[in-house]
Amino acid sequence: MISYQEALQVISQHQLTLNTTRVPIEQANGHVLAQDLIADRDFPPFDRVTMDGIAINFADYEKGQRSFPVADVIGAGMPQKNLDIPGQCVQIMTGAIMPTGLDTVIRYEDIEIEDDVATIKEEGIRHRQNIHFKGQDKKAGEAVVAKGTRLSPVELIVAASIGQSEIPVLELPKAAIITTGDELVNIHESPLEHQIRRSSNYGVQALLKEWNVDATQFHLKDDKELMIRELTSILSTHQLIILTGGVSRGKFDYLPEVLEELGVEKHFHKVKQRPGKPFWFGTRNKQNIVFALPGNPVSSFACANVYLRHWLQLSQGMEATNSYAELGQDLSFPPELTWFVECQLEHLENGKVRATAFRGNGSGDFANLTLADGFLILPEKQETFKAGEVYPYIRYRKEV
Known about the structure:
alpha/beta; Molybdopterin biosynthesis moea protein, domain 2; Molybdopterin biosynthesis moeA protein, domain 3; six-stranded mixed beta sheet; 7 helices
C-alpha cells in the first residue's frame, strides 16, 4: 500500500490536456476560463455620476458661489451634454454621463432647490467628487479576468459587460460512472433479501455535476467476459472512468484483471487510509483516466471527494489547496492509516472553523454521512489527536 500523500502525488502526474469550448453565459458558472476576458472599452466607458444631485463647475464654488440656477435635468442613458454657461448647474442622476463644462457632483442631501435654484447647504465640497472617471478601473484592451479563473457570478457580470454571451472555458472530460456487482439492482426496483439498490454512484454523479462534469451511468454484472466487452466500448467513448466496487480481493472482483487486459496501466492499488483502502488508480495511453473506487458508499464518496476533486482541480490548471479547521474534541485512532473522519463544521466568532468529528458504523454506514458536512483528514503517523489542533478538511455539503 502507498500513503495518502503518495497517492495524491501519483494522481497529480496524470492530468488530461483539456480542450477549449464555448458555453452560453447562463451555463458558465463554475467552469474554468480558457482565455483572458478583455475589456472592449474603458471601465467605466465615460465619466459616470455616482450620486443623484447637481453638477457644477468647481471653479464657481471656489469663488464663493453657493446658489446655482438649474439649467437642465440629465438622466442615465442620455447622450453627453455641454454646459458652457458659467455659474449654472444641472440636476443629474446616478449613472448619467457627466456633461462637459462641469466637474463636480453634489448630492441632493447637501442642497436645497427652490424656484429652480439649487443652494449648497454643506461646506467641504471637494473638486471632482462623486464621479467615477472614464478608464479608472480598466483601460480598453486590458485583461479584466485572467485565464484559469474559476468563474463565479461576479466574473459573469464582467463577461456580460464586455459583450461575451458565450464564454471560452476548458472542456471537461466526458465521464462514465460504472457500478459493478450482481447484488445491486436499479433504484426503482424492490430488492430481494440478498440485494441492495445502487446508491453510491448517485452521490458521485452529484459531486461531478457540482464540478460541471456530465457523467453517464452504467452497470456491469460480475461476468468477466461481459465486463471486457462493455468496458472496451466505454473506454472508447469516455475519457474519465469512475468505477465503484469490484476492486477488493473477493472471488468475483474481476475489475483489476479486466482493466489490465484492456491496456489500463495500474499506478497503484490500495492506499493506507480509512475508509477507502482498496482504491485503485490507472491510465490508458494518456486517453483514459480510471478511478476505481471501493464499493462501500462511504468509501467511494470519501475517495471521490479527496482524489477525484484533486485531479479535476489540477487538470484545469488550478491549485489544489486545503481548508483547515481546529479539532473540537480529543480523538484516538491507533491504526497507521490516514483517517478521513466525518465531521460537522462550525464557523466561530473568532473567524476559525471548528470540526466536531464522529464515528459511524463503518464504511457501509452511508446514512451517517447525512449528519456531517465534510471529512477531516487526520495523518497516519499519529495515534492521538487533541482538541484545538488544526487539520485539513474537505467540505462536501455546500454552505447556503
